Amino acid sequence: MINFRTTFLSLFLASLFAICFPEILNAATTGDEPISLDLVLSPIGIFCLLIFVVAYAFVMAEEYTHYRKAKPVILAATIIWGVIALYASNDPNLSTHWAEKQFKHLILEFAELFFFLFVAMTFVNSLTERRVFDALCSWLSNNQFSFKKIFWITGVIAFFLSPIADNLTTALILGTVVLVVGKGNKNFITIGMINIVVSANAGGAFSPFGDITTLMIWQRGFVSFFDFFNIFVPSVVTYIIPAVIMSLFISNKIPEGDGKKVEILPGGQVIAALGIFTIIFTVSGHQILHMPPVFGMMFGLGALGTYGYFLKTKYPKNNKFDIFVQTGRAEWDTLLFFYGILVSVGGLAALGYLSLISNDMYGTLGPTYANILVGFLSAIIDNIPIVYAVLTAHPEMDMGQWLLITLTAGVGGSLLSIGSAAGVALMGQARGVYTFFSHLKWSWAILLGYAAGVVVHLWMNADLFDNIPLAK
Fold first, then answer.
1. How far apart are CA 234 and CA 241, in angstroms?
2. 380 in any annotated domain
3. pLDDT average, residue stretch 246-256
4. pLDDT-derived band of residue 4, with 50, 70 and 90 as boundaries?
5. How does DSSP classify residue 13?
6. How far apart are CA 36 and CA 25, in angstroms?
7. What CA dihedral angle connects 374, 379, 385 and 388, to 10 degrees?
8. Which residues contact 218 (CB under 8 A, 6 or more apart)?
């Protein structure tokens, strides 16, 4: 079975979770000082931009270099802000502590994201340790389902599990099922993996807990928790269309299971219930008490630790559960990667680069076409820095447009295997079978679903676009 300790939320990305960080770079500074510097065309600005580009190139090449993604972006963030601080300290128009104030806002934002993801990872690691996911894989692979039925079962489960567990974790869990039941059937494994990637990304788009980008959009207050469900039907459409097409090429033959039955260890069901309760408490605390979501998540961590004490007391010799062992298994490379990304992009915003997004991309194309373009960019680069850049630039958009970028950034990564953490993880899991080019073979079907989902959103939620014209 797969090792979730080292793969969970390689982005989760992955899974992903609640948010409510303070507005970055929007807090008031002393006097009439600018929020950002006008250094876009200066040697300083160009140097910092190149540093970020080089660092992100290392991130994209991690699969080949094995140079963990957190390292280059942490170095880039430090260099960028070091240059900014040096410039600001010598600018007579800025206070001595201008850079310090901007940097502190970034650190506060990262701290809330860090603790949210830290708790989410701990819950997933705990469920893994209690063999909950192993039991699910065993049940799916030993129930005499046909290849086509397994195709649909894994896809539907991925769609509804992703909004809770995040798209990456969901893909890894169900990818294991596809590999087990499809052993020796390359066609089923390939199409099954693509199906899971598309489904997990689509399901994660209509929930704040489904992806890092939806978390960031929710925490900024552009879209409330319940407003996300306005794109439930468009998300279904983006999954169903390519799934129906691909299912036509799946056999009805019944595979042979491995016969292994996995039992959930004591406390597994209770920990799953605690996870669900934590989500409910987090959402309620944010909606009713107006507290940041990290408030509810940390309560969940305390509840999990308390229940862990109960388990150790009840089972002193066997099946010991230690909450601190599970926290130690958090994916630290992912957490530190987010630090580097948020701080680096915040530095580019301080230099004035992100205003180009608002003025050029959104001003020239209009929000509708710009948000659709974000989906295609997400397939090539990554949705996290792109969406974070848009959030920081804060272009003028209404609810319909914020939901549109949520949908396109979430499902656009499915167009290519490298466009989402789910796809990258499954390429490693099914190395040599599910590849970039095997996924590319079905990109046309995924594109049909992407386009149809956007059209359905524009049609069904037309009343949400009333405040600002769709395009200029």
1. 11
2. yes
3. 87
4. very low
5. B
6. 8
7. 40
8. 18, 19, 20, 208, 224, 225, 228
Q: Residue 108, SS3?
A: helix
DSSP letters, 274-303, are: HHHHHHHHHHHHHHTS---HHHHHHHHHHH
Least Cα distance to 279 among 210, 333, 365 occurs for 210
- Give a yes or no: residue 470 inside a domain: no
Strand partners, 15: 13
Q: Is 204 a domain residue?
A: yes
- Is the pLDDT assigned to residue 407 strictly greater than 90? yes
Cα–Cα dist 79/400, whole Å: 38
Domain count, the chain: 1
Burial class of 123 by CB neighbour count within 10 A (0 to 12, 13 to 18, 19+): buried
Give the pLDDT score at 1: 35
Average the pLDDT over 428-446 and give the result.
86
> Nearest CA to 19 among 104, 114, 102?
114
Residue 182 lies in a domain: yes
Q: Which tens digits make up the pLDDT trace of 287-300?
A: 788 888 888 889 99
Residues in the chain: 472
Task: Give the pLDDT of residue 9.
Answer: 33
Full domain range(s) for residue 251:
4-465
Residues 222, 197: Cα–Cα separation, whole Å: 27
